[in-house]
Amino acid sequence: MEKITFLSYDGLKIEAEIFGKSDHAVILAHGKIFDMQSWEALAKYLEDQGFSAIPFNFRGYGNSQSKDFKYEFDVVGAIDYALKDHKRVSVIGASMGGAATLRALEISKPVDGLVLLSPAGLPKSFSDLEGKAKKALVVFSKGDFVFDTATEISKSLPFETETLIFNGNLHAQNLFRDSEIAAELKSKISTFLRSVERI
Questions:
Q1: Rounded distance, CA 181 to CA 84, Å?
Q2: Which of 1, 23, 105, 171 has the maximum number of C-beta atoms within 10 A of its C-beta?
Q3: Which residues contact 46 (CB under 8 A, 6 or more apart)?
Q4: What's the pLDDT score for residue 161?
Q5: Which DSSP letter does residue 18 get?
Q6: For residues 167 and 142, is the Cβ–Cβ distance under 8 A?
Q7: Of residues 102, 190, 183, 180, the one with CA closest to residue 146
Q8: Which residues contact 172 (CB under 8 A, 6 or more apart)?
Q9: Distance from C-alpha of 76 to C-alpha of 89, rounded to nearest angstrom
């Protein structure tokens, strides 16, 4: 693991880490009650699977600079950073990070894969996401408080979308707290990312 920084779309210094050396970078955008450290187990798993994982702290978290709540600008910065040295770039966004990723894709360069874990908000316009990802995977629980939002997203994204719904009410990165769900989810994410590489 290497500590790095990149600039957000509006020029803030964002704290991040990178696990692994691969031509496929996977950006990890955390939820509101989390930070980049919460991705450590998944980042190491992705590294073991042959990907480069890039967890980062949103503005106002950790040592990332703070200005406002334009979290989507941090995701745009992460995408720009990853595209410099990687052939493929995918994004995994959880809860707030999922919503920020959807808004980021309206203005960012296209990515390869998009994984949303309990996305907690909609893009301004689904039509603006046309061509912004090759494929998506939307994951949430039956009892998740964002169930309706996540369902709408999974039905409305303008590209091929897979949906994975678990029993229970675990939200976003808390899905990994259940060992059975975590094993299935990590395997599904890896399989999904591999499938994107074939498109």
A1: 34
A2: 105
A3: 19, 20, 26, 52, 53, 189, 190, 193
A4: 98
A5: E
A6: yes
A7: 102
A8: 31, 34, 94, 95, 97, 98, 117, 118, 120
A9: 12
